[in-house]
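Much of what follows relies on a compact textual record of a protein's fold. Each token is a code from a learned vocabulary of local backbone shapes. The record below shows the convention in full.
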Amino acid sequence: MIRRRGRGRIVLPAFVALCLLIITLDFRQSRLGPLERARDFATTMVSPLQRGFAVAVRPIDDFFSSIAELRDLRTRNSELEQRLERTIARSGWSKTLARENRRLHQSLKLQKSYPTMKVVTAQVLGSTPSNYRWAVQIDKGRSTGIRSDMAVVVPDGLVGKVVQVTDNSSTVLLLIDPGAAAGARIVQAGAAGLIAGGGSSDNLSLNLIGNTSRVAVDDVVVTSSYNRGVFPPGIRIGSVAEVGADTRLLEKEIEVEPAVNFTNLDFVDVLVESGPHGGRAGGRTGGDRGSRGAGSS
């Protein structure tokens, strides 16, 4: 049995080799010649084997082709990711430059509004542990001329005042803190009073003294020298959100919506007096006529 199997293994390859030899012989012979007939016979016999071999090999060929295509796709994907990262980096850098340009422009406008004061731009480092509910720490301090009671603003309006100072940092009490207060005036009605923090980021409480009959919702509220306020007059505080009933004959409680988003402070400007010792926040002469945002001219 072993010998017969061995012979079979030899006969089949020999037969295939013979067929191939006949196929490759002289093709110039007549179509009717014996060699031509033998070649046709060999072709007929070998064709099924060729088709079977092609069918068997095709998955292997497809497999290696898929590997090559996958390698190309990975290379293209890596290139696209790198291009996307470069584009995002350029976009982020452009946005940063645009923000810096706007901030510089706003600081210059603010400086024009207060020509007797120096504007110090500081970055908000975050909330700081203190006795105040609403306070933040900034990265500028005594070395830049900042002192306690100086006004802190952003382009939208009043942020608060400095309450603690070190050489290189300061603590700012936000206007919405229950312990904060400022002299205020309603531009349209001309009524003045004292505004205080309500303890949340979305409301302030204004107590008006005097003629309050003309106060209306959406009226603009600005800082005032009322009650010897420490803030420069005319800085925007917010707008009237709700007019309460009279609690006394000549007094009315007004709810004010702040102009500043106190939960999204990034950079602020400190109004520093030009004098040698600094001091409380002051403003330009001429009283508190008109209204302006912190960055308006």
